Amino acid sequence: MSKRELTAAQRKYFRPYRPQKTDRDWDLLRMRAPELEILKLPISPLFLEVKGKPWPGKRRSMAIASYFDMNYEELISEVGMKPKEIDLLIELVSDVIQTEKSEKDMVGKERIKTQTVDFFFRTLEKFDIRPELPIDFISLEPDTLDFLINSSVDDLESVLRKAVELLDKKVLSGDLKLLFNAVATESPQLMSRFLPIVPGERGVQPWKAISIAVKKIPAELRQHVSVYFEGNVAKVPEEDRADFEKICKRFDMISFEFRSLFPEESSSIRDGAEDSDEILQAIHDPEVQALAAKVISGRTKKTEKAGEGKSEKPSGFMRSIFGRAGAN
User: Fold this and answer.
1) Residue 213 phi, psi (nearest 5)
2) Where are the beta strands (DSSP E) in the chain?
3) CA–CA separation, 33 vs 39, rounded Å?
4) Spatial distance between the Cα atoms of 119 and 111, rounded to a whole number of angstroms
5) Residues 124, 186: contact at Cβ < 8 Å?
6) Same domain, yes or no: 223 and 307
7) Domain end residue (candidates: 201, 224, 249)
8) Which of 14, 52, 57, 229 is most buried per CB count within 10 Å?
9) Contacts of 261 (CB under 8 A, 6+ apart)
10) What DSSP element (H or E) covers 31?
11) Tens-digit pLDDT profile for residues 56-100
């Protein structure tokens, strides 16, 4: 069959192969290739493992690393490799090296993250700050708090872990970044902006913890929350009702959290002990101080006078709050 009788598809098939890589590409690769255990494998099995398909060239049993001692022309003349095989070999080795580099980078980043978190925990221990401190007692912006809570972050330890994760992704910003830097620099002055500590004193201060929590209640709803903790039904404007319900449920939990963290102080305040006023006297805002005492004491249950039968059942919204939040 003469050349004129070949079809277009046949002429394309018989067209000489044009190498995609040059001798320079091969020399650069083999000179920079690291000593990897995986490169001691023959081409065929490694190609199948990396590419997910059989090696299309001639079956070869030599270790891939052994080819690095030969230049491009020697691969052709001494080993009998075709330019297409060399292209595939260069691509295979490049993929293996890139994968190895990515894995090393990932391991290195994980090590740095672990070391950072460990450093943070040592800092917290140094200042006697509990890593299990609930997020309610950390001073952060509302948007930051919503983001963290929606990310299943609920205490200081998980807040710092989340900050390290965001730093690794280069998206750490705002007040969470400021908290990260405060702990990283071991500055009690900076940490006191976010955590319930006082520079020069060790440990978490109960009055500051509850103060941070109470100040998160919008000013227009504080009186209604105070009425709620007195055991009464608060007359909340309809447009604020959803926010009010959410706050009441949250602060029922905060009340439990505080009593769990600070049992002695809580008992003093709930029992009206002589030293109870001293516990919260550092809160200079009378409204915040009074509401803090009510939150710590927990919601009051209204009962009828003796001899008048059973206590009233809370109705409507208040009954739903009891059922959902389990307040006492």
Assistant:
1) -65, -50
2) none
3) 9
4) 12
5) no
6) yes
7) 201
8) 229
9) 130, 133, 134, 204, 206, 209
10) helix 23-32
11) 878 787 888 888 888 998 888 888 888 888 888 899 888 888 887
> Are residue 60 and residue 135 in the same domain, yes or no?
no
* Regions in the chain scoring below 70 on pLDDT: 1-15, 105, 107-114, 301-328
Q: Which of 197, 229, 220 is nearest to 294 (CA)?
A: 229
For the whole model, what pTM was predicted?
0.61
DSSP notation for 143-175: HHHHHHHHTT--BHHHHHHHHHHHHHTT---HH
Phi, psi of 134 (to 5 degrees): -60, 150
Angle between helices 286-297 and 263-271 (to 10 degrees): 100
pLDDT of residue 38: 84
**Amino acid identity of 154?**
D
| Whether residue 146 is found in the same domain as residue 82 | no
DSSP state at residue 69? G
Domain of residue 302 covers: 205-328
Q: Find, among 45, 134, 59, 135, the residue nearest to 92 by Cα.
A: 45
- Across-strand partners of 155? 134
Residue 274 and residue 319 share a domain: yes
